[in-house]
Amino acid sequence: AIYGKGGIGKSFTLANLSYMMAQQGKKVLLIGCDPKSDTTSLLFGGRACPTIIETSSKKKLAGEAVAIGDVCFKRDGVYAMELGGPEVGRGCGGRGIIHGFELLEKLGFHDWGFDYVLLDFLGDVVCGGFA
């Protein structure tokens, strides 16, 4: 996991690191753990992946279960997902992270066989959600 002050290049570094590992034949998962949901945008041409929080909410309203293909995307050999979080001023980012990881557990995350899982955390959470 990499975390720290915003704007120092964490997402850029992890996107490039995940790409290089994948090019070396490693099975890599990059998880964005920032409510801004911008970790994966470098890999996907400037567009962020749909977040687990958004997708989970939409599926719940439709009475459908979330499948791994709904939240995990692949490009250039890198599997990537964004956990997401609440809208600015509408809750704690830590709660979004907790919900995301709970869903990953339900989807059998530990059985996916990744060589590396890279986590991009923001370092300046004011609600104490990561403490």
Mean pLDDT: 86
**Based on helices, strands and strand pairing, what is the structural class?**
alpha/beta
- Low-confidence spans: pLDDT under 50, at least 5 residues? none
* DSSP summary: helix tally: 4
Quick overview of this protein structure:
The chain is an alpha/beta fold.
Describe the structure.
The chain is an alpha/beta fold. It has helices spanning 10-23, 52-62, 68-71, 93-106; strands at 2-4, 28-33, 73-75, 78-82, 116-122. Strand 3 and strand 4 form a beta hairpin. It has a five-stranded mixed beta sheet. 33% of the residues lie in helices and 18% in strands. The mean pLDDT is 86. It has a single domain (2-122), classed as Rossmann fold (3-Layer(aba) Sandwich), CATH 3.40.50.300. The radius of gyration is 14 Å and the shape is globular. It is built from four helices and five strands; from the N terminus they run βαβααββαβ.
List the helices and strands and how they pair.
Elements: E1 2-4, H1 10-23, E2 28-33, H2 52-62, H3 68-71, E3 73-75, E4 78-82, H4 93-106, E5 116-122
Which key phrases capture this entry?
131 residues, alpha/beta, Rossmann fold, 5 strands
